[in-house]
## 1
Amino acid sequence: MDPRSARCTRMVWSLSCFLTCRIPVLAAGSRAWSGPEAHGVEMAVTPSSSDRFSHLALLYYGRGEYLAALGGFIQASRARGDAVFVAVPKRNAQLVYQELGVNSAHVTLVDMAELGRNPARIIPEIKAYAGKHRGQHVCCIGEPIWPGRTGAEIREAIRHEALINLAFRDSLVAVVCPYDSAGLPGSVIADAVRTHPAVVKDRQATASVSYLGPPDLPPRCNRALSRPPAHAETLGYSDDLGPVRSFVASRATCAGLTPPRISDLVLAISELTANTVRHTDGGGTVQVWQTGGEIICQVADTGHLTDPLAWHRPPSDELLGGNGLWLVNQVCDLVQARSSRAGTTVRLHMRLHRHAPRRHASRRTH
């Protein structure tokens, strides 16, 4: 037996109808995991939404605790015959693969820095994966926030975490979300506690007393977007969208966006403004501005989206005309959407100095 597999067999992680969280540890005396990580406790936590769905925040300290927890979860999930989907940043994905010897034939391992660059992509990807394993329990490890993410990205990732509770509450899905307690701000950890029914901290699992529950969101990720800067350029539109496309293309060209990415941005703007024409009577406005590393386009109109998951649904051949929002999420690096009775504002971010793949070319999942 591979030594790494042997180490994993000594780890235990159990998630069932009662979310029993056994912090995975190695047997006493193991050389690989000596020190404070080599101790654990067990505590039962009753999930608040469904006896089939569970959502757990894992607040870890250090590489040892991280690998022990993930390794035990993967090993126990595979032993039960679950489908396992692991999405963590590339560096951590490499650690998981190298240290735990994850068998790619049984575990889907993807780079969250790519998949979750725009956090609104994550839920559709998990849904697609679960759809491929219909009738089978799906265990998902997802790390959507890591040190170095921008403030806007973090707010959208927190929003995503809250919406998981709504998107999967009637599903055979267990989601575990690792959080780097040493590397992330305290405000992020506080929001993790608000968006997860149960939390593991210091090797103890407890029900979260701060858990908001669907459809509530932590306040800072649900506030109206900040005002565009004074130098933002503005164009109004009603029926004719040709000028909108030309306006966005010319500004993106001047900003230095590459031609394929310009086409993606124009496509996204076309989808949003077409929705305005299709669903409202008052037209809308497009604003464009540039920051040090991004070009940002904002579309505002009088429409009101009442479905909190509208931006987080996978594409469907049965959803006539409803795949445009999914498409926008695939081609943009970050999408921020806020809607109220006063109207809807959508802000699109495109990085200037980093290529992003054209994810809309295929619907296949990893």
## 2
Amino acid sequence: MTNLKTELRNLRLMVLGILISKTGSVAFTFAVGLYVLGITGSAMKLGISVLLFTIPRLIFTPLAGVVADKFDRKYIVVFGDIISGLIVLSGLLMPKPSITHIYIIVVLLSSVQSFFEVAFQAAQPDIVSDEKLFQLNAYSQSAMSATNIFGFVLSGILLSFGIRIVILVNGVSFILSGISEWFIDFSFNKKTDVSQSVEKQSFADQYKTSLAVFKEQPIISYVVSLSLAANFFIALSVSVPLVYMMNRILGISEMYLGIINAILSVGIFVSSMVLAKRKVHSLYKNSFLFAVIVGMTLVFMGLPFVLNTTYTVPVAIAILALLHFIAGYSVPAFTVPIITLEQQLIPPELRGKVFGLINLASEIGRPIAILISSLLIPTVLPMHILMFSGIMIVLITVIIMTSSIVKTAFAENQMKQTTDTIE
């Protein structure tokens, strides 16, 4: 009974920490962009602020993986949030934060969060039992989607009172999140003493050992490749082409763009809550089916407007809102089983470095995809980019998920979880 109480407390505190810190973080990130644009009127300065969120992650994520495997992940998670809060609150030291000060906060915050996020991801299998890990990942997804819904709304409300209020709320939210995370038992399901298992190796040798995991367990290479490919083609089609199509070609206003994006987050939230509440009988079929649906929603976002561009704006909004909800619902149903499988298969002592490599690949792929789509827009219809990206996701999903290695690994892992639950 005590173990069950501890596990439930861990799950609730982890989700609460996500809700508190990420809502403030989303509000802060959005507000910073508006603040920089409002002060300077420069799209370039706005672009620099976005870039400064990304560059530290590219630099520090590999190191963050080593740190997460060498030191106690609880301290990295807790103090990562508390230090992030203090960094943000430093913006209150000036009556009116300058653009330079905002840039410094963004760089420092992104750097610290690089270490926090890898340790947070690597620690999740240690705070709940193996059979509850899927539920934890589902609740985490629902919390993240909720922060996207409320964070943007909160940002607009807080920014009306000034950037200092945004800074205060985000700084306090990080610190409160860190305090709540302190009461999580990070050793509840720990199978290995991570700090003792990491040998005295050079930085390069540690990553060679981590890369060997992909060779020793090909299933990890397969599912990571699928996730990265899906992320790349989603970024290629959604970040620029979809927005351009909706706003410039279909004439949908910024207000309705925001509503449509909120509907995407609602779909993610609903799906994550459904996954957390019910038992998924076949993780393999779930991931396979919904990965295909994600690809098909991209195809159908472009197809109607290739065949007929004379839809009225309300009809176009209705079509896209429905497809955004379907896409949002499908994403967790596709990704949560894969994330859970990765967490269970990767050795605990290498989890930080392996997730560091995965996150780094994702961080590199996204800006490349956005750059490619931006260069294509003048010569290629955004609808065609959407359809191409959707077809590629479907094809890659079919190729990877029909592999005997993937089928066997999913079946063996589910059988093991079933046996553990019975025992």
## 3
Amino acid sequence: MIMERKIRLSAVVAVLLWCIMPAMAEDVVYLTTEQFKARIFDYTKEKEWKYKGDKPCVIDFYTTWCGPCKRLAPIMEELSQQYCDQVVFYKADTERERELAYVFQISSIPQVMYIPVEGKPALLKGLYPKEEIVKIIEDFLLGRKR
């Protein structure tokens, strides 16, 4: 009887985790300078750009008070869900991560860095419409010319 309950409870927990985990995987990840160096590129040790990830990524450089950044945030959230298996989405707060902002010369926001698995990243200034961001992701990051 007790063993039966443990098995049922384990099955319920497994189902709940299965339902919750995809949502967690789709969220935009907040990126610190140390995480950037560990996951993306360690500019303190390397001279030539070499992306460390196995999926392309998008990094949204923002601040909490920036109006255009606030308008970009839900677009990035939506795209992170749409491309969850293909592209990793990050956010880096330029006021908290001043070193990153300095290294990449982030002087106006929003700025978005698009990083393909192979090749150099592209850093674009300003707020782009969702359709343009999708085109950049499809063409530049995923190599699907439409």
## 4
Amino acid sequence: MTIDGAVLGRLKAVSAITAIVGSGSSARIYAESLPQHPVLEAITFTQISAERVHAFGSDPGLVRARFQLDAWAKTWEKSRDLADAIRGNGAGNAFSRFRGTQDTTVVDDILLDNEIPTFEAEPGSYRTTQDYLIWYHE
């Protein structure tokens, strides 16, 4: 499984998130961008970078990836509520601070690095952007 699949799987595994965006194949969680005429609230995720750790004589397979997650909604409050559900309480039962295996990918940690609320004129919605650092094994 890829890190993209693990991110999608983890987002779909958190009940606080699926209570807002739906569950299973009807979950409004999208890679890269929203579809045309989206139903909000929704989440988009994009991999920004992936740095590999190197060691003398071998590569241990440890990667630090940066992902941007966007919580989309029709109101500022609902966008912030969805972002809060993604972040969770820091105990690892949400997206942030998760440690474990997700869809065969071993994740060492997921760390919230930055968060910015914005308004998007098109499609006339609010977005809270969160940058996460994800340490995982290839």
